[in-house]
Design goal:
Layout lengths: L2 H23 L1 H12 L5 H10 L9 H6 L3 E3 L11 E3 L6
Antiparallel strand pairs: 1-2
């Protein structure tokens, strides 16, 4: 490698080391790791979605499971031919 390429590689390596050190020490990274630990059976994408929507979540259910638990009610003001449309009954909608 040329001297210029070696200098460029050394600079890139130093930048990467600084970025990794900053990431390791950030609260967002620790929060993300906590979400990943709680929901390790979920896909990475779903873990990110859970972390974005509710980082302190401890329990996640699927749509059908919420219906079976009685936490959803049908919306009668919406045309719903299959009867599958529902909203969670757990607090205010935003």
């Amino acid at each position: 490698m040329s001297e210029r390429s070696q200098a460029h590689a050394a600079q890139a390596r130093a930048d990467l080391e600084r970025a990794v050190a900053a990431l390791r020490d950030s609260d967002d990274w620790r929060c993300n790791l906590a979400v990943m630990a709680r929901f390790h059976r979920y896909s990475f994408r779903n873990q990110l979605l859970i972390g974005l929507k509710m980082p302190d979540a401890t329990y996640v259910r699927g749509f059908k499971s919420w219906i079976d638990a009685g936490r959803c009610k049908p919306r009668h003001d919406v045309v719903d031919p299959g009867g599958q449309h529902c909203w969670p009954n757990s607090g205010p909608r935003f």
